[in-house]
Write a structure and sequence with these properties.
CATH architecture: Alpha-Beta Barrel
Strand content: 5-15%
Helix content: 25-40%
Strand order of the largest sheet: 1-2-3-4-5-6-7-8
Radius of gyration: 17 Å
Shape: globular
Number of domains: 1
Length: 270
């Protein structure tokens, strides 16, 4: 079974950005494929880049190139038609992203979450939620009532400098996962630490807390091209080493997170 990079973005200047946004250079699918060997992955889950707003053309074109080894997470207008959702499904999309971490530049609105969950449930999709832990905890009633499963981005964005299990979002997410309704992405180590190298300190504590609590409901992602860390992103080798570190070298667990779980979650062909 092929290993999967379950979280990355691609940027291609051939596609128009959303108003006021700029497409960065040197971060195309070809650029990603040039470094992917360092990750040891063959499958990829592309997440709609915020600079493209609700226009998923760049994402779809990249999925066409990846073929059976590519899946996508789209961002859409809630007014999208069922036919357009069907076309995205055919292209390889398996979920919708709601990135609400920073309300000032959020493309989607919290009020749309329940409505879109009901609309994509018949496709077997999930919602990918990028929220900080306080937002997640405050949304408990909403999340527990969603009509489709959900994936929590970047380790649930738990606060650094504290015991991960002490935040109410941890038990909420873990409970949803144990009920078969949620997964957590082990990705973006630099987003979950105060200082130090990627994968160290706070991030290590957060990642290992998830590994200990819900090992069968985790996927790993590189978060390439590490857009928040530009122009000095972490080296591919350091990102590749994170999963081994977080799993304390447990080969069976690494295989589960890198291969088995994403194969089921993203509906990859056997």
């Amino acid at each position: 079974m092929k290993a999967c990079d379950s979280h990355l973005h691609v940027y291609d200047a051939r596609f128009a950005p959303a108003p006021g946004a700029t497409v960065p250079s040197g971060l195309t699918l070809d650029d990603y494929l040039a470094v992917r060997g360092a990750y040891g992955t063959e499958r990829a889950v592309l997440v709609q880049a915020k600079v493209f707003g609700i226009d998923n053309a760049c994402l779809v074109e990249a999925l066409q190139r990846l073929g059976a080894d590519g899946r996508g997470i789209a961002v859409v207008d809630p007014a999208i038609s069922d036919a357009e959702l069907e076309a995205l499904h055919t292209a390889g999309v398996r979920g919708l992203r709601f990135s609400l971490w920073n309300p000032s530049n959020a493309v989607a609105r919290p009020d749309d979450i329940a409505t879109m969950a009901a609309r994509v449930a018949p496709f077997g999709w999930h919602l990918q939620l990028h929220m900080h832990a306080d937002q997640t905890a405050a949304s408990a009633d909403l999340l527990m009532g969603l009509a489709c499963p959900m994936v929590f981005d970047h380790m649930g964005r738990l606060p650094s400098g504290s015991t991960p299990q002490d935040h109410p979002a941890f038990d909420l997410i873990a409970g949803l996962a144990r009920d078969g309704r949620a997964w957590v992405k082990l990705s973006g180590p630099y987003l979950n630490r105060r200082e130090g190298a990627a994968g160290a300190g706070d991030t290590l504590a957060i990642a290992r807390s998830w590994v200990g609590a819900i090992p069968d409901r985790l996927v790993w992602g590189s978060d390439w091209p590490h857009i928040t860390e530009q122009p000095a992103p972490p080296a591919p080798a350091s990102i590749a080493a994170t999963l081994t570190d977080w799993c304390d070298g447990d080969a069976a667990l690494i295989d589960h997170i890198a291969r088995q779980t994403p194969a089921r979650l993203y509906d990859f062909e056997p």
